[in-house]
């Protein structure tokens, strides 16, 4: 499993570098859309297998419109589109359920949560891509989150003694979490030395620390979903990594942090 994890990463890394750094921007945005859809498929598979197929397709359709308009630069439509994530499933229930059952609201909540949890952060990545040197900021995000994930794994295996949250993720420890944070900060510093993107000052230090912590919270959030529904992995599309959602869970919480930083920068 560990070897497969590294092999998958080694194969995927040059593809991601080309797509993010040198490929056509619309192709990158389309790849993000496909990632969001696959993430939604896995999310519904974990949380609501009983959800009607029509409700799932509403989520996929909403995600498509979201990416299409944001990629085209129509950002003023973003607020009503976000409302549509909740309004469309509610309208579906109004016109298809003659007797509202107790679990209807639960299914409705999951249908609305999926696009907001998965598609919205990835759409923010499309907007970040439009910032000056946006592709370099995306690389910075990936490097910090990857370093944090790797540092937490090895620090936890080597020094782990105190459980971080055994009810959610029994394998994670406080020692691993601290190791991940330090690895993320180190990655940000190294990036500043070999890139002219920024000077490693206090604001970048806070940004890197917040990205690392947010990424770990995102990892725990997906672990909570899986554990609550008795699922080990969200899927098997990535050998050694599980599903798409297993691979991007940390990024989903870290992307909004970078988005806010660049918006106020």
Main features:
265 residues, mainly alpha, two-stranded antiparallel sheet, 9 helices, 2 strands
How much helix is in the residues?
A: over 70%
Sheet/helix structural class? mainly alpha
Integer tally of domains = 1
Write the H/E string, N to C.
HHHHHHEEHHH
Main pleated-sheet profile: 2 strands, antiparallel
How many helices? The count is 9
Number of strands: 2
Strand order of the largest sheet: 1-2
- Which whole number gives the mean pLDDT? 87
Report the β-strand fraction as a percent range.
Answer: under 5%
| Radius of gyration from CA coordinates | 19 Å
N-C termini distance: 41 Å
| Residue runs with pLDDT of under 50 for 5 or more positions | none
Overall shape: globular
Q: What this model shows, in words?
A:
- By secondary structure, this protein is mostly helical.
- 76% of the residues lie in helices and 3% in strands.
- The chain has one domain.
- It is globular and about 60 Å long.
- The model has no long low-confidence stretch (mean pLDDT 87).
